Hints:
The complex is a heterodimer of chains A (146) and B (138).
Chain A: H1 2-22, E1 28-29, E2 36-39, E3 42-46, E4 62-64, E5 68-70, E6 75-80, E7 86-93, E8 96-103, E9 114-116, E10 121-123, E11 126-129, E12 133-136, E13 144-145
Antiparallel strand pairs in A: 1-6, 2-3, 3-4, 4-5, 6-7, 7-8, 8-9, 10-11, 11-12, 12-13
Chain B: H1 8-23, H2 27-37, H3 46-52, E1 59-61, H4 64-70, E2 75-80, E3 87-91, E4 103-106, E5 114-118, E6 132-136
Antiparallel strand pairs in B: 1-6, 2-3, 2-6, 3-4, 4-5
Helix pairs in contact in B: 1-2
Amino acid sequence: MARILTPALAALLAYGAACGALARPDFHRVEFHNNTASANGLTLRLADPDDPAHPTAWQGPLEIAGRCTADLSLITAVYASPGARYLIAATYNGSERYAHFIDANNCRELWPAMQASHDFNVAGDILSAPGESRSQLFLDRPPQAR
Amino acid sequence: MASTSIDPGTRVIAACEKYWDQHKADCSGFARAVAGELGITLTGMANDIVGEIQKAPWTVLASGVDAAAMAATALVVGGLVDQPHGHVVIVVPGPLAHDKYPSAYWGMLNGVGKKNATTNWAWDAAHRDQVIYAWRAF
Lengths: 146, 138
């Protein structure tokens, strides 16, 4: 019996590992209405917009309702992906922009923020700043420069 | 000649309005243009300008409150060094946010700055209290 199960189990494990390796996030920009949004079953809230009717930035913080609050300021966008354990929050300070990787369970920064002098673009599994950097995103590990 | 009869604060606002569209994506270019319109030379990028306004004939101010008050009578520049790019703003007469962040115009490198907004929209919560403000007569 063990001889039969062992190859089957090995094949199953190999398949699972392959699927895990192939799984890619699909980040998209979260749309806020009245400073509130839903993403991946989470309710997100941003405080204090620059323009209540057409906000381009929020003083923050970013709240994940019922869970935690991320102490970020000058937030310009939030990105979420099904299956990802984190949100990406775009912020700025002076002339510099930052991409923060916020744990969706406790609002802690999972990895050091990335910095650029252009606005970050996030689409699917790519995080880029035009002319500066381009990184591969994963579901549960740090971005890698490409 | 007519412009000299207008109060300094109004002249600064007029210069900001004149150059904002052209330099809304370049904070140092915007500051240089506004200062130049008022007969004052600023040189270099934002980090250079922050250094320049801390030397004579500029006078450093103690706070954003003082910057707002001085903006009615002089050119007031606010700035903070950062790497690789610092940031500078032109302070104008107007309300304070949270009783300490003055109104200003600025360009934003590779982006879009803001017109007549308080400086807590230029620097984040961790940095906005470190901004250096300085004035010079024109």
